[in-house]
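dude i think i finally got it to work??
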Amino acid sequence: MPAWIKINIIREPKLDRPALIQGLPGLGFVGKLAVSYLIDEFKLKPFAEIYSSYLVLPDGNTGVQIREDGTYYLPRIELYDLNQSKKHAILMTGEVQPTVHGQYEIVSKILDLAQKYGCDMVVALGGFQTVLEKEIGRVYGVFNAHSLEKTLKELGVQVTRSGAITGACGVILGLGNQRDLPSIGLLGATRGEYPDMEAARGVLKTLTKLIGLELNFARLEKEIEELKAKIEAIKRIQAETYPRVSPERRGADKAPFYI
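look at this
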């Protein structure tokens, strides 16, 4: 059975040679958080919606998502126009990524639409896994043209030279390259254990410099501090509930020790 894909154009956006900025959920929800913050701060409205049999609920089932007011909607990817920046942008986000078998097809359709509106650049936002606390918030980057390496370094981005970028974040970079579009990946260092607003802040600060956008970070800074306080409180509760076990005792136990 062929896949079902429907693109709903809500209105015609006012854009001039925009960059397509991908911010779907992924490691640490870094890209999703970054794009959602831009949407909220500038009170942006979607100009297009993409529906598909390749877009399913977060648990992998087909169906609809229920809103707080009792209405519902199919899983979708939304496109928003951002023209408050020097470099206009199309923001691409949603609550789920396409299924593995549908990522190429859906990303291709979105690139077709973006290029219809003059898109001349791709920027993919995502997470970069780390176990080091001191790296949280650092931004790593990849590029498809050596002329972009200087740009990234001037922005304070550390170029990564090994590994892989998976999911829609990687696919959009690959397909952007196939279309000869300058393509950049901005990856915020994160442990990936929870939605990482600190990593999203690092990516946002780099992105805003890249596209020439003035952005107020006050609300994000407040949310980061509140999240840190909650995490510390959870750690204290865990420490009190599950006292430390000596290495000798842990080695003697056959069952693994979990915190």
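Residues 177 and 191 are 28 Å apart (CA to CA).
im so relieved honestly
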